[in-house]
Amino acid sequence: MSTPTETPSTPSRSRKGPTRSEVSKAAILEAARDEMAENGWRGFSVDSVAKRASASKQTIYRWWPSIGAMCVDAALALIPDAPDGGRDPQERITALIIPLEAAARTGHGHAVLRVALLAAADDKDAGEVWRAWVGRDIRQPLRMLLAELAAKRVIRRDFELDDVLEQLLGPIFHRLTISRAPVKEGFCAEQATAFLRTYAQF
To answer: Which residue from 9, 22, 78, 111 has the fewest beta carbons nearer than 10 Å?
Structure first.
């Protein structure tokens, strides 16, 4: 009596490359950046974004809780990862904030970041997205770095973390939103140097 032959199962094919939804989302964010650069926050049009990206407004509203949150996401996608700061305190502090400088100096990055900052100030959801990024990518690693520098007596221990954040980030935010001026190369390094000069351990 013959026994049934087992048919080998066909291995499932692993999906390679971005999914359809990922491609669509990337197109929407790219269209949002174009709209941000051309028309700013006050003149921003979700209809224009949908048309540029060949997407529906329903899709946009399904993926983002607000238009402001989408604008912040579009801007954050321009910001590169922080580079290795090496061992020098000034270089290590600079490394945490220089991604903002890099984004601002790339194409229309300064205009895109300006809109993101205005959206974060105006819109609750956008503000939460922006603060979450600052907290994860800048505030938390900065807290650990400053604690290390204080323990090594490079800086004083009497710093307030949020005050340091304002000292480091305030000038670039002011330049983008109030001065509406380009961010020069080395701008963030200057802020790091000024901070270390203020809090140097004597």
So the answer is: 9
